[in-house]
Amino acid sequence: MAQLFPEDETHGWNHYDILTDLLGDGIFTVDGEKWRLQRKLASYEFSTKIVRDFSSVVFKTTVVKLVGIVSEAANSNQAIEIQDLFMKSTLDSVFKVALGVELDSMYGLYKEGTQFSKAFDEASAITLYRYVDVFWKIKRFLNIGSVATLRRSIKVIDEFVYKIIKSKTEEFNKSQDVE
Which cofactor(s) are needed, names only (predicted)? Predict the structure, then answer.
């Protein structure tokens, strides 16, 4: 069975350079001791029974929503972009499990969630394109073209995520005051 975080993970400097604007110094970009520490923390968090049980419920709920959207589209003979829908369902699930936030990017009813989702999709596509764009470092240096768009998208992403972190921190602090 494949491990979530394999022991022999190495990314290299090119990989780090390409991904760091979007993902920072996270487990998907770093190597060596930083990676080992993050892997240890993540594997502990993801191995707890409570997280596994909760994520199972979240994934099942997301699948029900996904099936509903696909079924509705099929019944009305409406075309849908299935890859986009799968990406949104994954993002919704990850946000619910990791941050306890209902992103709702599949239905698009939560305005900030929709803006985040759009910005994340755009930033991910631009970041992925760096693997074949030989001029991306020049664009980054000059802040032109796709890099300017990437920076705007990252600003939307950061504002959304930092707002969630602030809210969660305040909730935690209030719960500590009550005890």
Answer: heme
pTM over 0.85? The answer is no
Q: Are residues 83 and 154 in the same domain?
A: no
For helices 32-47 and 49-75, what crossing angle results, to 10°?
A: 80
Question: Residues 12-40: what's their mean pLDDT?
Answer: 84
Q: Per the domain annotation, does 121 fall within a domain?
A: yes
CB 81 within 8 A of CB 91: no
**Amino acid residing at 9:** E
For the chain, give the percent of residues with pLDDT over 70.
91
Integer Cα distance of 63 and 56 in angstroms: 11
Count of C-beta atoms within a 10 Å radius of residue 4: 9
Q: Which of 56, 154, 43 is nearest to 96 (CA)?
A: 56
**What is the pLDDT, as a whole number, of residue 46?**
66
Same domain? For 115 and 155 the reply is: yes
Same domain, 96 and 128: no
Task: Say whether pLDDT at 3 is over 60.
Answer: no
Instruction: Specify whether 115 is located in the same domain as 162.
Output: yes
pLDDT at 5: 43
Angle of CA points 88, 13, 19, to nearest 5°: 20
CB 145 within 8 A of CB 122: no
